[in-house]
Write a structure and sequence with these properties.
2 domains; about 5% strand; about 50% helix; mainly alpha
């Protein structure tokens, strides 16, 4: 049986835990029985009761930016999604239906970071490659993307 984490044991109410969770938390010393007066129910040990601190929005924002620095993302950006800018609008017009559209996609990704370009081109190439109903236009687009990938790797 895996051990339950300290966070789980100290934040979850014992009444909401199952038998195995209770026994794991009890074995680690996070839970103790109450007096016989309370019918011996389990409660979180007083020394492990969590103290919830009230944080302002500013501290949450600064915490986010610290986390994003750790991950290698720009500190101000919270959403670093490949296909959207957080407003459900596509960032760039892209496609893999024909060689013309593939060249248009390569023009549209200029000005973005190297890793972003690689993600876009790799995605378009693999979508065309594994498409269920592949056309000759898609095969030509795959050649365009493959040439770009071989030049930029």
């Amino acid at each position: 049986m895996p051990r339950m984490s300290k966070k789980y044991c100290t934040t979850t109410s014992p009444s909401k835990m199952g038998f195995s969770q209770k026994s794991s938390c009890k074995a680690q010393g996070y839970l103790k029985r109450t007096s016989k007066r309370n019918k011996g129910k389990y409660v979180i040990s007083p020394k492990y009761k969590s103290k919830k601190s009230k944080r302002s929005k500013q501290s949450k924002i600064s915490k986010r930016s610290k986390q994003s620095k750790k991950r290698g993302i720009h500190p101000g950006k919270i959403n670093n999604s490949l296909y959207s800018n957080g407003k459900n609008k596509p960032r760039i017009k892209s496609g893999y239906g024909s060689a013309e559209i593939a060249r248009e996609t390569l023009k549209n990704i200029k000005g973005h970071s190297c890793s972003y370009k690689m993600q876009i081109v790799n995605t378009m190439y693999n979508r065309a490659k594994h498409h269920k109903y592949q056309t000759s236009g898609m095969k030509k687009a795959m050649k365009v993307f493959k040439n770009w990938l071989s030049k930029n790797k």
